[in-house]
Structures are given as structure tokens and as C-alpha cells.
Amino acid sequence: MLRLVSTVLLRRLAAAIPTLLMLSLIVFVVLRLIPADPLAMMLPPNATPADAAALRHQLGLDRPIPVQFAIWLGNALHGNLGASISFQQPVATLIGTTLPATLELCLAALVLSLFISVPGGVLAYSVVERRAEFPVGLGVVLMQSVPSFLWALLLIALFGVWLPLLPFSGRVGDGIPMPHLSGFLLLDFALDGDWNDWLSAASHLVLPSLALAFGFAPLVIRVLRSSLLDQRNESYVGVARLRGLSERRILWRHMLKNAALPALTMIGVQFGFLLGGALLVEMIFSFPGVGNLMVQAVRNNDLVLIQGIAVVFCALMLIINAVVDTLYVIMNPRLRKAV
Amino acid sequence: MSTTHPNSTPPFVPKPDIETDMPRDSLSAEPAADPRPAATPAASVASAARRKPARLVRRLRSLNLWIGAAIVLGVTACALFAPWLAPHDPLNQDLLHMLTPPAWMAGGDPAFPLGTDSLGRDVLSRLLYGSRVALTVAVIAAFGAGVVGSALAILAGYFGGWVDRTISYLVDLWMSFPPVVLSLVLMVSLGVGIDNVILSIVLVDWTRFCRVVRAEVMVVRQRDYVLAAQLLNLSHLRIMLREIVPAALPLMITLFSLEMGVAITVEALLSFIGLSVPANVTAWGVMIADARVSMHEAPTGLLFPMLAIVVTVLGCNLLGDGLRVALDPRMRGRGE
Question: pLDDT higher for B222 or B113?
Fold first, then answer.
């Protein structure tokens, strides 16, 4: 089993490499079409055209685009994504220090959204063709019409300003030193045994991850509902009913397991939605993650940084999808023979 | 050109499932990995026992359509008649009346029904003018994404073979981008402006149409009347325009309505970061960004533009859901 899983995972990851190359090429080319001159930011106001030409040459910007891409790619393979123009630091370092925050946020949001969407999906399914279907359906569509960044503002207004219960800025309270182990604060503080600090980090995580989860949950609810609808005519449901199992048991123990597969695909594909949502949610909560970094990079027209982050986001998407495909094989024995 | 026998049965093609396609993204790039069986027509038989409320439910379902249509029409009217409806110039700063609460609250001024923002601009007027930006972007971007995506989808679905493989590869590639990241990268490269917001939404979201419409075209292509048209030796273009497009049109209209909601959200998001409209244009996202700064003094300022976005997007989603049920014959009697 373990061998099978690792084979599938490796195969999927290998298949993602050409895609990642194409994606980084697209990002590279699109960012070279920019009307503003990226050099304008880097030069002092009294620079001469000769200075500009020298800098352009130094950065390799006077070469043809394919050559530039080849150079960038060569460096990227060595873990060097260039130096950020606005932060004056290597892009890889900037991303490396912020990525754990984003991953922690997204994982927390994913877990929270499962706690919302599994009961929600079962509820949405169980009211089908009953009186409550309309209000429940309307509720799901309403929830879906509120994007994560509005949830973020709403939650801040409710639980940060109106009822000041939870903190809404940064990752930890003032004066708490950041541990430098894995970057995952909940893990690091738990390993250190600093439970007060752990609580502080957790409470800072609640609102941003709830905002993301509220934006994400309705998507999963809808898929879960429609895949439960598809399951209800399967013969195993009839068999279970004939054996006298209770409807509740059939639904929670048997149908939900089978309906989980399409929902899993959805989660994999929609992870990009979560990452995109994290961008604004991090900005709103001043959460020091990659999304926040991206918004700053965009505001400063920091092309090198934008490019690095965009490629890292794409790589994350591809990795998540490979993991989901692998989970799929673990959860669905019917797919194992094909491998 | 496909060489199917007149009698051949259509191959199994999964029903395009809009339900799973609501967000800015898509289902798996590998349909082969989807073990879901096609929905059987027996779906409603199992629930025969609970048939009674079904009619009520169906009526309520179509209520979705009417609520959605009413909201979208209402917002359209606001956008069209904004200059006549708005009590003030949306950019007119009145520094004597900064952060006035709505007229019905203590300290409100009847001259500013929904209050003013931190620069003394009338919130109601700004909302009305903001609906112009939102709707312009929604309609044009959704139309553009629909035309580009559907055209490619029809080419892919009709010709199959390498055309299909190329287009499908492009779709898969595009969908590996987190959509917001792609829009940001495009906006950086295109620059600020409503035209560029529209262009970037079209460039990001055409895949949503392409993937779903392609699956539909692959079903339609096998129908007898398409084969008859092919036997009459009509040109490919004519067959695509006269036989295939009308069959796929209901699906496209439904997707168009859902896409309007997505476009409004994306525009609000971009203008919230300050990447969408120039400073002299009023957009809902800009209002939210302004109100966020003065949130501690005047929380109501945040409420109205948020309500405007949520209600409008809700209208588009309800309209899309309602249209899906109303226009798709397969949905009729499925009670779903």
C-alpha cells in the first residue's frame, strides 16, 4: 500500500513538472509586457540614461526574452528566484519566511470548512424535496455570494470592533518572540510547551481562517449535496435498507463515505480558490504570509517578487492536486488496479 | 471531421455539471478519475413517498429565478438612472459633514440618506454610481469570457482530435493558476483601468465556459439533426452556428449569469486593493477600502457597500440557478 501510494504521488508530481514550466513561462512573458519600466523604481531620480543602460545590462534585461527566461529558470533550479526590488532581499528568503504562515492559515481554514460543510452538505441533502429546501438552498447561495474578503471585514467588525473578543492583526500578540523552528506557530509553540503563546497564536488564527472557511464551505456543501443525491439510488443503499440499517446510519456511515470522493476532488481543485482568498484575507488581517507579500509586491510593482510568488503559488496548486489524486487512490480501492 | 455512423449511439459523456462549477475554478483536470455514475432518471422514484411537497418546492425553486431577476433588474435600473437618482455628486467632498450616520440614526442628516464617508461624500450617491462600474464590468466581462470560452469549446467539441487536445491542454494549464493570482499578475502587466479589469477577467475566466460548454457540445454533436446537416454537406461554420450554438445556448446563458456574479466579486476585490479603477471613479471596492480605514468611528460605512456587493452577487447567483433549472430539460421533473 505504501509503495503504491508513493508511486502514485511521485508519478503525479513528475507529471506536474512540465505544467509548472509552462506556467512559469506564461508568468514570465506576461510580466515582460508591462508598460511601466521596472527600472524606474530602482534608479535614483538623478540617474543618467547611461546608468539606466548599465543597470539594465547588469540585470540582464537587455537580452531577448527567451534568454532571460533560461537564465531565470537556471537560477530558480538552484533555489535562487532573484532579489526583490522593493525589499532588497532574496525572493526565496522572503517567500521562505512567509510561506509557513500561509500554509498554516490555509490548513486551518480547510479543517474549519470541513466542520462547516460536512454537516451543511448533509443538511442540504436531507431537506431535498421538503419544505425546508428553499430556505436552506437560499442560505447556501447567500453564503456563497459573500467572498472571503468581505467575510474577513465582517468578522473584524463583529468580533474585533463591536465585541472585542478576538485579535485581528498579525500572528501573535505583542512581545511574544517568534520561534524559528518550522515556522508553523501552533506546532512550534506546542513543541516548546509555551501554552500561553500557543493560545495567543491560535486566537490570532481564528478570525482569518474562519473568513476563508466561510468563503470555501458553500462550494463543498454544494458538491456534497449533489453527490449524495447521486448516491441515493445506488444498490448498496437499497441493500443496507433491506438489512434494516437506520436511515441515519446509511447516510452517515455509507453514503457519506462514497460521496466524499467528488468533494475531495473539489477541495483539491478549489485549493487555488483558498490560496487566492488567503491573499486578501492576509492583507486585511496584516497576517505575515505570502498573500500579504504578494499584495505589497503588486503595489510596489516589484516584478521579480511577483514572479517568484506566482510561480510558488502555481507549484503549491500542483502539489496539492497531486496529493489529492493520491488520497483518491487510497480512498477508492476501485482505482488501485489501474495504477 | 468526425466520422460517426448515423446509427451510432452517443458515447458516454458526463453531463456538464454546473453545480460543481460555481466558483472561479473547475473540477478535476482528469475526468477519468471521476467515479461518479451518471444520474439516473429514477432519481425521483425513490422519493415518491415524499412527493407531496415537491410541487411547492418546484414553485419555490422557480421563485429563485424571479428573485434573482428582480435584483439584477433593480441594480441595472440603479446603474442606468444613477445621475437622476443620486442626490449628490459622488465625488463632491463636504468637509463639514464627515462621517455622518444614516438619516434614521441619531445625528443623521436627511440630506444624506445613508450618511457620508470620511471625506463627506454622500454614501447613497456613491453606491448608485458604483453600480455602474460593477454592472459594466459584470456584463462585458461575462460576455467576453462567454464568447471566447464558448467559441473555443465549440471548436474543440465539434472537431475533436488535435484541436480538442490543444484546447483542453490550454484549459488545464490555465486552471493550474490560482485565479486571483493570475488576475493580479495580469493587472500588474496591463495597468489600472476598467478596460483592463474586464480584459483580465475575460483572460482568467474563459476556461469556466470552455470546460462546461465543450462537454455539452460533445453530446450535441452526436444528435441526428447534426448528422443530417453533415450529410447535406453544409459547411462546418454553418453547422456550428445554426445547429450547435442554439443547442448549447441555454447552458451559456446560465453560465453567463453566474459569471456576472464572479466578475462583480473580482472587480470589487481588485478595486479594494486599488488595482481596478482610477481615483476619480467610484467603485464599491474602493468604498469598502475607504470605510475600512474609518471602521472604528463609523461601522455603518462598511455595511452599505458590502450589502450592495452581496445582494447583487446573490441576484446573479439566484438568476443563474433559476435559469439552470428552467432552461435545462434534463432538470425538469428531477426536483433538483
Answer: B222
